[in-house]
Amino acid sequence: MLVFIVILLKININLASLIGVTFTGLIGLYGIGIAFSSLSLVFKDIKAIISLFKVGFIYLLFKQNENIFIPFSYAKGLIWDIILNEYKISDFPISSLSIVFLNSLVYFIIGLIMFNYFEKIAMKKGIQS
């Protein structure tokens, strides 16, 4: 416990920047969750598929390089800079912040589109009323 207190005293984290970038990046992960839930509307047993994707996402999150096509990967790099290098959100260029926002927005929209598509299929099959 003492080590945790000493570490907190030495690190100066800007919480507003950390929370802002984290929540912006999480929007894309919500989109992926919506996409998987849309699959469960039609296919009732998707545990194996979700397990495979979960392992893949964990691998991709712990890779050091950032890729704008992987959800939360670019946001993870910005979060690391905020925590380790004590950056503020104003220290990042607008292009980096817009990449995080657009990446999250694209994955969220893809999740919503998939949900609407599979919901219509489930209604046609009579699985869902």
From TrEMBL:
Is the keyword Transmembrane helix in the record?
yes
Which controlled-vocabulary keywords does the entry list? Answer: Membrane, Transmembrane, Transmembrane helix
Segments traversing the membrane? 15-39, 94-118
Protein name (Swiss-Prot/TrEMBL) = Uncharacterized protein
Q: Organism's domain of life? A: Bacteria
